[in-house]
Write a structure and sequence with these properties.
The protein has about 80 residues and is mainly alpha-helical. About 85% of the residues lie in helices and about 0% in strands.
Length: about 80
């Protein structure tokens, strides 16, 4: 079955936005959890802040690959 609104460019664009949005969301989570840990002393927030940092690192690596692929496609 073919969906006209789901051509390859749209799917690719959504994937790019997804990794970009993942970085932003993970950063916002990190900021909130780090604040809870540093200001309020909530120990569980330290683990959540570290997890958010790991999510950022993973999403950044994925986004770097996407950008490289896009650059190569332009050449």
């Amino acid at each position: 079955m073919h969906y006209p609104n789901l051509d390859q460019n749209n799917v690719k664009q959504r994937k790019i936005m997804s990794s970009h949005e993942t970085i932003i969301a993970a950063y916002e989570t990190y900021l909130a959890e780090n604040e809870k840990f540093k200001v309020k002393g909530v120990k569980a927030s330290a683990a959540r802040a570290r997890k958010a940092l790991q999510d950022i690192a993973t999403a950044c690596k994925e986004r770097r690959k996407e950008i490289s692929a896009e650059k190569e496609a332009l050449a």
